[in-house]
Amino acid sequence: MTLSLVPLDWSPISDKTKRCEICNRVAFGKHYGALSCYACKMFYRRVVVKKLSYKCRGFNECSRSPKRLLKCQACRYQKCQDKGMYMEPLEDDEVKSEEASDDGILELTSPNQKIEKLSILLKNLNIMDKKRHAKLKSFYSLNDESLETILMHPGVDPDHQVTPEEWAFLALYSHITYFHNFEFIRELGMDDKKKIFQYNTLKLTYFCGLMRTLNEKRMRMLNPGGQEIYPDDLIDLYRTNPHNLARICCQPVNRLIELKVTNEEYCLMNIIFFCNP
């Protein structure tokens, strides 16, 4: 299962901007094993999916000039391969089920196929979230891992039983391992991963906590162990005026109940919020 990120805008080029290894334009991450822009990513995918073949009109040396390279599809594809880009060829029936649209994005041609693929996607997201929740309630770590350590080793589970004081850390940990199931996350560089998780993870942890509260048929959000989500110091600070803390735990849950949010809708919103911070 693969989801693709689309840039919301084009940032000014600076000396620190990452460059596409193929055409030297601004890169937006690793695609099929190489640091590349979206244009080169889609070019490579189109050649592989459609099994296209090109011949250079020159001497197969167009890659020496970025301008010539973009005009020569043969040399451009060869450079994609030289830089390590690789994609498993699709089976014939998979190729027939896809059609290239005007913007180069591959789409399913049949409405029934679209519905079936969406249904499979929703089921997979639901299963992944259930596994995330099960893992959240069954592991614990005394190692105090940093964000970078977790991103480098997302498959290593903490090795001790959970204690109530560590629910916040465990929630963040479970979300990072959850999103590492997606190819577009695994292809990002470490700096990009750190930025997107630093910006998103706390908000998603709160949103998922609200949905868990809804599924547990509670009116107030607690941690998975049934304790308050706030540390004792914060509770003491607001002891004379607990309304604000209670509002954060209760009002959003009421809103989810009013909207009758389903698990499938929650899974999709989780992805949307993450991809569009």
UniProtKB/TrEMBL annotation:
Family annotation (Pfam families): Hormone_recep, zf-C4
Domain Nuclear receptor stretches: 17-92
InterPro entries recorded: HNF4-like_DBD, NHR-like_dom_sf, Nucl_hrmn_rcpt_lig-bd, Znf_hrmn_rcpt, Znf_NHR/GATA
Entry keywords, A to Z: DNA-binding, Metal-binding, Nucleus, Receptor, Transcription, Transcription regulation, Zinc, Zinc-finger
Domain NR LBD: 134-277
CDD domains from the UniProt entry: NR_DBD_HNF4A
GO function terms (MF aspect): DNA-binding transcription factor activity; RNA polymerase II cis-regulatory region sequence-specific DNA binding; zinc ion binding
SUPFAM superfamilies: Glucocorticoid receptor-like (DNA-binding domain) (SSF57716), Nuclear receptor ligand-binding domain (SSF48508)
Similarity comment: family membership: Belongs to the nuclear hormone receptor family.
Record protein name field: Nuclear receptor domain-containing protein
